[in-house]
Write a structure and sequence with these properties.
The protein has about 375 residues and is of the alpha/beta class. It folds into 3 domains: about 40 residues, no CATH class; about 120 residues, Four Helix Bundle (Hemerythrin (Met), subunit A) (Up-down Bundle); about 150 residues, P-loop containing nucleotide triphosphate hydrolases (Rossmann fold), CATH 3.40.50.300. The protein is built from 13 helices and 8 strands. The strands form 2 sheets. Strands 4-5-3-6-7-8 form a 6-stranded mixed beta sheet, with helices on both faces. A two-stranded antiparallel sheet has the order 1-2. α3 packs antiparallel against α4 and α5 packs antiparallel against α6. It is flat, with a radius of gyration of 27 Å.
């Protein structure tokens, strides 16, 4: 039995840990004995982490990082989550807040003591603009959602180009039906994969052509939307029809068939039958996908965090353009409020239940 005294324990409270020996029966017996004690109950999902948050041991960004760490399935996801959980973003936010408090103090002092109450200090406005630019640079970084959900890699092209066969070979199992009949694939099929630790969401799509029935037309319409939204496009067709996609990989499929000729320049010759070119294609997909993800030593923002940093940047940008000291002070107050929502100090009750509900029992 180990005792951890608050407020320096993980939750900020007095905590006792019981370390049991033996197998599952010993643990069950221990839990049964504890359950017989009046007033004792099992923790709710995420309750210990929530207590740590409510007692100021961690902030909301660290709690989000811990939740992501529990759910991490690839090495890249684990490293990004660990950076948040260990306080990487919290330390950066603290530096921004300290800077912002200094700017607010200057603005308030100008209101109270400057003779010309209408004019804002040009130096203060420049400092506001500088901090706003720094926040916008962070907003331009790759987001955490790509790392969590996977880079969207879409296989597309005309009917019978070999799209479904290629997906099956890459996935290592028959996930898509393959026939010689055009229009066999009516809807898209998604397969989550990890390439060298890089998460991707591989998607097979219906062949792009004039549809012959209503169901196929729906599939073709979805294919067009998926192609437009793809992070990386694997195109099995004429290069002129590759939608001018910024991240298209041109594939010369069915390279084992002599009648298809040699691969055009800039394309990768691939055969799902012989395995030719599959390794080269996957290497290129991984390279392009990895370029879209946050660097392993970088802190990635999730959608909620980016939203509040964006609010702070907008308020600081407004302050930089204001000419009245009172308006500058009000914009800086809005920026501070955005940071409070970012760290969980205020206005976040609606996200707490959803966040801590993601945790396993007793974490």
């Amino acid at each position: 039995m180990l005792r951890f005294n608050g407020p320096t324990s993980s939750t900020g409270e007095d905590v006792v840990e019981l370390h049991g020996h033996g197998g599952r029966a010993v643990v069950d017996s221990l839990l049964a004995a504890l359950g017989a004690i009046e007033g004792l109950r099992q923790a709710e999902p995420g309750e210990f982490t929530r207590r740590a948050f409510e007692n100021g041991r961690i902030d909301l960004t660290e709690a989000e990082g811990l939740a992501d760490l529990i759910e991490a399935e690839t090495e890249s996801q684990r490293k990004a989550a660990l950076a948040l959980a260990e306080g990487g973003l919290r330390k950066q936010i603290a530096a921004w807040q300290e800077n912002l408090l200094g700017l607010s103090a200057q603005a308030e002092r100008a209101i109270d003591y400057d003779e010309d109450d209408e004019a804002a200090d040009p130096g203060l406005l420049r400092d506001c603009a500088r901090l706003a630019d720094e926040l916008r640079q962070w907003l331009g970084r790759p987001r955490l959602e790509l790392l969590k959900d996977g880079v969207r890699v879409v296989i597309a092209g005309p009917p019978n180009a070999g799209k479904s066969s290629l997906l099956n070979v890459i996935a290592g199992e028959d996930r898509a039906i393959v026939t010689e009949i055009p229009g066999t694939t009516r809807d898209h099929i998604q397969v989550p994969l990890s390439l060298g630790g890089t998460p991707i969401l591989l998607t097979d799509t219906a062949g792009l052509r004039e549809a012959e029935d209503v169901v196929e037309a729906i599939g073709v319409g979805r294919t067009g939307r998926l192609v437009e939204a793809a992070d990386v496009l694997v195109w099995l067709g004429d290069s002129a029809d590759a939608f001018d996609h910024r991240r298209a990989i041109l594939v010369h499929a069915k390279a084992d068939l002599p009648e298809l000729g040699v691969a055009p320049p800039g394309s990768i010759a691939v055969s799902s039958v012989t395995g030719e070119g599959i390794a080269a294609l996957l290497e290129e997909v991984e390279r392009r996908s990895r370029a879209l993800l946050p660097a392993e030593d970088a802190i990635a923002l999730n959608r909620r965090q980016a939203q509040h940093i964006g609010e702070a940047a907008e308020a600081l940008g407004s302050a930089a353009e204001a000419r009245d000291a009172v308006l500058v002070a009000e914009d800086l107050r809005l920026a501070r409020a955005a940071f409070d929502r970012l760290t969980g100090r205020a206005g976040i009750e609606d996200v707490l239940d959803a966040l801590f509900g993601r945790f396993c029992l007793g974490k």
